[in-house]
Design goal:
It is built from nine helices and 14 strands. The chain is an alpha+beta fold and 302 residues long.
């Protein structure tokens, strides 16, 4: 989102501006949603991750690639990780099914969306000014499907309430009136789960702190979590440094006031998980009341 781009001042070569959302009903009728002066950004995520890595390595950080967290042992003055690393403090930023949370007896996510995405070379398949969003209870119950004209790549994906089985051929078939992706080579595929149960109750102790998806700081409605992960990562760095220098309280307590409660979005998540027939979704999309509601939601960017 724009807020994240402004905080980090990412190199523009890794970003492409998207000016609005085109929201399609099951019949493929659509409405365009824009907020004056606001944009989203598609990102070259591998490029951004390389940039992050090289930035912190230049400041002396050591990164161990292809090294999974497997176990931890507590000692009097340190934590022993994978039987070969020692740390004064551990940050668990290891995703929706965090092994750090499991090892340290912290709260774990229980409510998920399941997602899958295909990536195609080029960005001229659909109007590149929009994030194309599709609601269809048969294809993506509980969430959406999407087409994102990204950075030299177009991402076509879907997510649904777990444990619904995703059917990418059904999505590609649905998209044929807009573009036939079935004859375009797939450059990359990815998939995984997204936590949508809200912020977890126990996020750390005097040695450990969970962040990002591991902490459940993901919008239960939109499944957006990148902005909060970046914001909390910055704040947590200061809290951990203060704590280790003897200047502050334990980081999980210092971070507590900044976690969102997501009460309204949890309510909307419960509604989204309900079985809504497609004919009603088409009625909603064509309704002036829904259009106004969708416009208001588009202003709640994460």
């Amino acid at each position: 989102v724009k807020e994240a781009e402004q905080v980090f001042n990412f190199p523009q070569r890794f970003l492409r501006e998207i000016k609005g959302v085109r929201l399609y009903g099951p019949s493929l009728d659509y409405i365009d949603l824009r907020s004056p002066g606001y944009s989203f950004y598609a990102a070259d995520t591998p490029g951004l991750m390389d940039w992050f890595a090289s930035t912190v390595q230049a400041k002396g950080t050591k990164i161990e690639f292809a090294e999974k967290f497997s176990e931890a042992k507590r000692h009097a003055d340190s934590l022993e990780i994978n039987q070969k690393y020692h740390a004064r403090f551990v940050v668990g930023a290891d995703g929706a099914r965090s092994q750090v949370a499991k090892q340290f007896g912290l709260s774990q996510n229980k409510k998920f969306l399941t997602g899958m995405e295909f990536e195609y070379l080029g960005i001229d398949y659909l109007d590149r000014d929009y994030l194309h969003v599709f609601i269809d209870s048969n294809i993506a119950p509980g969430y959406i499907a999407w087409v994102v004209p990204g950075v030299e790549m177009t991402q076509v994906g879907m997510a649904a309430s777990y444990p619904h089985q995703l059917d990418m051929p059904a999505l590609l078939n649905k998209l044929k009136p807009l573009h036939d992706f079935t004859h375009v080579p797939v450059m990359e595929t990815r998939g995984g789960v997204i936590p949508v149960g809200g912020v977890l109750p126990k996020l750390g102790d005097d040695r450990v702190l969970l962040l990002g998806d591991a902490a459940g700081t993901v919008s239960p409605l939109t499944a957006g979590g990148i902005h909060k992960a970046l914001e909390h990562g910055l704040r947590a760095a200061g809290c951990i440094d203060d704590y280790l220098q003897g200047r502050g309280e334990i980081p999980v307590a210092a971070m507590q006031p900044y976690y969102p409660n997501y009460r309204f979005k949890k309510l909307l998540r419960m509604m989204a998980d309900g079985p809504v027939p497609n004919y009603l979704l088409d009625e909603f999309v064509s309704s002036p009341v829904f259009r106004r509601f969708a416009q208001l939601l588009s202003l709640i960017h994460i």
